[in-house]
Amino acid sequence: MGIIKLKNIRTYSYHGCLIEEGKIGSDYTVNLEVKTDLRKSSITDDLKDTVDYVLLNSIVVEEMAIRSDLLEHVAHRILTRIFEEIPEISRIIVAVSKLNPPIGGDVEAVTIELEEYRS
Questions:
Q1: Domain definitions of the chain by residue range
Q2: Between 7 and 18, the higher pLDDT residue
Q3: Of 3, 8, 51, 82, which is least surrounded by CB within 10 A?
C-alpha cells in the first residue's frame, strides 16, 4: 500500500455563511491524502498503474468552485467524488482551510478535516 499527498492546493472560492463571503470570496488551501496500492506502479513506472494526481487536483479545484456555506460540505463533496471516480483508493483525508477568516480576530486560518474509508 502507499500514500499520495497533495499539499496546499490553493483556490480562491466563495464559501461561507455570510452574504459578503459569497460575493467577495476568500483564499483557501486544501490538503489531500489518499491511500492506495502503489506496488505495481513502483515497478512498472506506468501512469495507468497508479492514481493520477492531476485528476485528484482537478476534482478538488472543481468542487472548491461550487459555493457552500460550510467547509464540511465542500470536504464531503471532495471525498464522495474521489471515491466515485477512483475505485483504487481505500482511504481519504481531506483538510479544507479558509485563510484569514472573517471571525473578528487575528486568525491565520480555520481548517476542517474529514477522514473516510471506503465501505
A1: 2-117
A2: 7
A3: 8
User: In Å, what is the CA distance from 57 to each residue of 8, 21, 68?
Assistant: 11, 24, 19
Q: In a 10 Å sphere around its CB, with 0-12 CB exposed, 13-18 middle and 19+ buried, how is residue 19 labelled?
A: exposed
Q: How far apart are CA 93 and CA 22, in angstroms?
A: 26
The pLDDT value given to residue 19:
86
Find out whether 8 and 57 touch, Cβ atoms under 8 Å.
Answer: no
Higher pLDDT, 115 or 20: 115
Long-range contacts: 45-53, Cβ < 8 Å, 24+?
50/4, 51/4, 51/86, 51/88, 51/89, 53/4, 53/6
Whether the CB-CB separation of 86 and 51 falls below 8 Å is answered with yes
Conformational region of residue 45, where left means phi above 0, alpha means psi within -120 to 50, and beta covers everything else: left
- Measured between alpha carbons, how far is 73 from 61 in angstroms, rounded to an integer? 14
CATH 3.30.1130.10 fits 2-117, yes or no: yes
